[in-house]
Design brief:
Helix 4 links the parallel strand 4 and strand 5. The model has no long low-confidence stretch (mean pLDDT 94). Helix 1 crosses helix 3. The chain contains 5 helices and 7 strands; from the N terminus they run βαααβββαβαββ. The longest helix is centred in the N-terminal third of the chain and has 18 residues. By secondary structure, it is of the alpha+beta class. Strands 1-2-3-4-5-7-6 form a 7-stranded mixed β-sheet.
Length: 146
């Protein structure tokens, strides 16, 4: 497995990352309906193209299996393909983000306890909670920092 920083976000890469995103969301975001997943999916390509720092973990064949996006020391996204969960990729990526981009903050859905637990394990603690997500939906967000 290798970690790669991506500057050029080709349509092919965005499609591959969309597969990773959807696999991760379906495995961990049980609070979202099918309709909501499909609605959010429409905005993921734009987010992938717009994030200042996109870092992916890829297999030896170059196929992405995990990715994270960082902006101004904030982890904006971290998704791992369900088939690759539990293999240390999240830790590897987040450590890379901390060491290379000074990641000190992130936000996580309160209804995704495994992600919250992972971030706590990585040294982050909750400092703020909102009842609604950034789109105004009723999904509480926990803001965490190191």
């Amino acid at each position: 497995m290798k970690i790669v920083e991506v500057n050029e976000r080709t349509d092919e890469l965005v499609e591959e990352l969309l597969v990773v995103w959807e696999s991760a969301v379906r495995a961990t975001h049980h609070f979202l309906s099918e309709e909501e997943i499909l609605k959010i999916r429409e905005y993921v390509p734009e987010a992938l193209r717009g994030i200042p720092h996109l870092v992916i973990a890829e297999k030896e064949d170059g196929i992405p299996v995990a990715f994270m996006g960082i902006a101004d020391g904030m982890l904006e996204m971290l998704f791992i393909h369900n088939a690759e969960r539990g293999k240390g990729l999240g830790r590897k990526l987040l450590t890379y983000g901390i060491e290379n981009y000074g990641v000190t903050q992130l936000s996580v859905n309160e209804q995704n306890p495994s992600a919250k637990g992972f971030y706590e394990y990585m040294g982050f603690t909750v400092f703020k909670r909102t009842e609604l997500d950034e789109q105004g939906n009723p999904y509480p967000i926990l803001y965490m920092k190191r």
